[in-house]
Amino acid sequence: MKPTLEALLGRRSFIKQAGMAAAGASALGFATQADAEAALGQVNTSSKPSDLKITDVRVAQLVDAPMRVPLIRIDTNQGLTGWGEVRDGGSPTYALMLKSRLVGENPCNVDKVFRGIKQFGFHARQAGGVCGIEMACWDLAGKAFGVPVYQMLGGQFRDRVRLYADTTQSPDGTEAGRRLKERMDRGITYLKVDFGIELIRDIPEALSVPIGQTVRERSRTMHPFTGVEITDKGIELLEEYVGKIRDVIGMEIPLSSDHFGHIGVNSCIKLARAMEKWNLAWMEDMVPWQFGTLMKMIKDETTVPILTGEDIYLKEDFVKLIDMGAVDAIHPDLASAGGILETKKIGDYAMEHGVPMAMHFAGSPFSFMANVHCASATENFIALEHHSLDVPWWNDLVTPHPEIVDGFAVAPDRPGLGVEANPEVIKEHIEGEYFAPTPEWDHERSWDRLWS
């Protein structure tokens, strides 16, 4: 509760006891005692942030959103509920294993809670539990203090957050362009397309591939070690594919790209150079982010912006890539990067070095709203991904619906993340029980300290 409201409550009791209601109300800026009572009626007097404690952590597995997403619910001793989620495709165990370390903690101490559990996260989906808990703690803190999350991050740089979107793939560039044009017709102002070697793998002489190598084998091998390279014919085919897309959508709208396949660094350079004529907004994850030197080689050989980051956990590895000049832009996934505050720190560091930040997202409205708050409060933000535009019930998972107008998500002025679960709809789209009790995770014992 805000100090002024606490003072108001205390003074109301004093005023009544002293028989000075009218004078007291006037002194507090209210015309009458009735006005003061009406103001107090808008305050959640059952919430006292300093005494808020986590009492339970539960999960429910959302499916077909269009991805599988473990939703997180944190309960408290004051009836407030916080919402978060493990990153799409991640295991709910990543969150549940943290329960015994969270019960009894005050979620308003978000940074303290995060520092206590961040050692249990790692890159990509393995960060999902830590990040989802952090989201839910911010939701609770905002509700306890009665303010939106972005306000606790320092306030807004924008009240509307630009969205970008892709579509389902098509082997025909003109059809891919039509699908993207449908996104534009729905108000999306920034586009993304997936194209890569799987589009040309069955075309003779488009690729050089080790004999007998399977697609599954290739997908499990890091890019520099597959032995796969694109031929000049393959480059020509992919250049033509993107050209057909541009013929449909035009050159004015930003078009970014992802999913090239696991190819060698020299093929990446050839492909990037061929795409310069189509003025791509970025080419993403051309090699794994761990190979910063190789990424810098690609960046230095093309004018197409090079971007990475959706699988990086915590600020430190973003700092390395930015400092070595390996990226033109970064692309954290808040549900992997460390949560809301860590992602803002990542964005702020990039801002100081002239590097813009787009945000990767694929999940439920809970994580979507966490991203909206972070993007609203981060100066160098460009665009946020929306992966569920074709899921008709996605908005109905929460109340009120996320507000999207003309391709922008509107940052809410409601406390916390600004949304609550809609149990009836969520129950229709989960695998297993709806936030079942988790007593088996109450008492995991471990000496977690990392020093002697």
Topology:
Elements lengths: L2 H16 L2 H7 L5 H8 L13 E9 L6 E8 L4 E5 L7 H4 L2 H4 L7 H8 L10 H18 L3 H4 L7 E5 L8 H13 L5 E4 L12 E2 L6 H5 L9 E2 L1 H18 L5 E4 L6 H10 L8 E2 L7 H9 L5 E3 L6 H9 L5 E2 L3 H4 L2 H13 L4 E3 L5 H12 L4 E5 L12 E2 L4 E2 L2 E3 L9 E2 L1 H5 L2 E2 L21
Parallel strand pairs: 4-13, 5-8, 9-10, 10-11, 12-13
Antiparallel strand pairs: 1-2, 1-18, 2-3, 4-16, 6-7, 14-17, 15-16
Helix pairs in contact: 1-2, 6-7, 9-11, 12-13, 14-16, 16-17
Structural features, described:
The structure is a single chain. The protein is of the alpha/beta class and 452 residues long. It has two domains: 103 residues, Enolase-like, N-terminal domain (Enolase-like, domain 1, 2-Layer Sandwich), CATH 3.30.390.10; 263 residues, TIM Barrel. 37% of the residues lie in helices and 14% in strands. The strands form six sheets. It has a five-stranded mixed β-sheet with strand order 12-13-4-16-15. A four-stranded antiparallel β-sheet has the order 3-2-1-18. A three-stranded parallel β-sheet has the order 9-10-11, with helices on one face. The protein starts with a helix and ends in a 21-residue tail after the last strand.
